[in-house]
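Intended use. Records like the one below are meant for learning the mapping from a protein sequence to its folded structure. Do not use them to infer anything beyond what is encoded.
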Amino acid sequence: MSIDVNNESGTEVDEQAILDIARYALARMRIHPLSELSVIVVDSEAMEQLHIQWMDLPGPTDVMSFPMDELRPPSKDGDEPPQGLLGDIVLCPEVAARQGAEAPTQHTMDEELHLLTVHGVLHLLGYDHEEPDEKAEMFGLQAAIVDGWRAEKGMTGPSPAPTVS
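Structure written out for the chain above:
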């Protein structure tokens, strides 16, 4: 799996953990190991510009996803995993820090970035949360992936509750 993490935010983040959880999420979703993903970490000003440009919404947001090849997970275990360019995930640590601190189960900026990375991966794979049934499916997968990764890493305590809107 080729995953590039580029931190342009000026904020120190655990780039290795972002890389690890992205790789874990893609493996869990059975995406071909030769697929490519880019994760860009930006400051709130850059995120706000992207949010306005692409969503026509004011202010910075936590995560944005820009799919390329519109890959989807295989529908059955025996199906060939799709391969290609997944696209870009853009993360904003300033928003992540605020969301983590304001969450009912307070957590760190890095824990929120882990959650947001998985959220971005799922968006790249076609998942959405506009409708209640879509939201239940996407957030269920998101929690399962984050919990599985945390367990594999030997992390204790509850996983961060979804703060992504």
